[in-house]
Amino acid sequence: MFDPREKVVVFIDGANLYATSRALGIDIDYKRLLVEFQSSAYLLRAYYYTALIEDQEYSSIRPLIDWLDYNGYTVVTKPAKEFTDAQGRRKVKGNMDIELTVDALQMATYYDHLVLFSGDGDFTALVSALQQRGKKVTVVSTLATPTPMISDDLRRQADYFVDVVDLAKRVGRAPEDRMATRENAEL
After folding, report:
1. Confidence band, pLDDT 50/70/90 cuts, at residue 177
2. Which of 13, 50, 122, 135 has the most Cβ atoms closer than 10 angstroms to its Cβ?
3. Measured distance CA(14)–CA(96) in Å, rounded
4. How distant is the alpha carbon of residue 92 from its chain centre?
């Protein structure tokens, strides 16, 4: 899939990857994920996109964001918007599609191959635009859930598709590692 001479960028739609890995019961080891791509090609940069609720005293995603920021990822965040829907339920919206798309297009002259961690069909136009510029695009998501987490249009448009289930065999955290992490967090 990768030519070792290629310059590769990784773009992770954080909310989408979180939902996918949670649906599969998989934990991604982000350090191993970087090593996986560094060993396959020239990894130019790895981006992680997520929205944050700013007024929360504690955010469960904050430790991950801080760790990623210190360990080789470029983290892109924006404040999530809170609103009440028509049924009176509190909702949080934090879509990072535009930021990811703009960054991918602006950087296009610097890379050969983009790896997109998302199954969101809204990215189909981005994939097409990058291909028109001569770029290869790999999409990482899953078909292994009862309802596929990837849009059929996006999967068809991509040059390559990698299922998170297959990738997790190399970059997932083992169940015993997850338990040890949880036990340490409780101490």
Report:
1. low
2. 13
3. 9
4. 19
Is the pLDDT assigned to residue 46 strictly greater than 50? Answer: yes
pLDDT recorded at residue 68: 96
Q: Identify the pLDDT of residue 103.
A: 98
Which residues lie across from 51 on neighbouring strands?
A: 78
Tokens 């338990």 found at: 179
32/135 Cα distance (integer angstroms):
25
> Cα angle vertex 25, ends 75, 20, to 5°?
50
Could you tell me which CATH number the domain at 7-186 has?
Answer: 3.40.50.1010
Domain ranges of the chain: 7-186
Q: What is the DSSP code string of 134-183?
A: T-EEEEEE-S-SSS-SS-HHHHHHSSEEEEHHHHHHHHBPPHHHHHHHHH
Q: What is the pLDDT of residues 78-130, one digit of tens each?
A: 988 777 888 888 777 778 999 999 999 999 999 999 999 999 999 999 999 99
Residue 152 makes CB contacts below 8 A (sequence gap 6+) with 121
Residue 83: φ, ψ to 5°: -155, 170
Is-contact 105 127, C-beta < 8 A? no
| Burial category of 11 from C-beta neighbours within 10 Å (exposed 0-12, middle 13-18, buried 19 and up) | buried
Residue in the structure block whose two tokens are 């289930």: 165
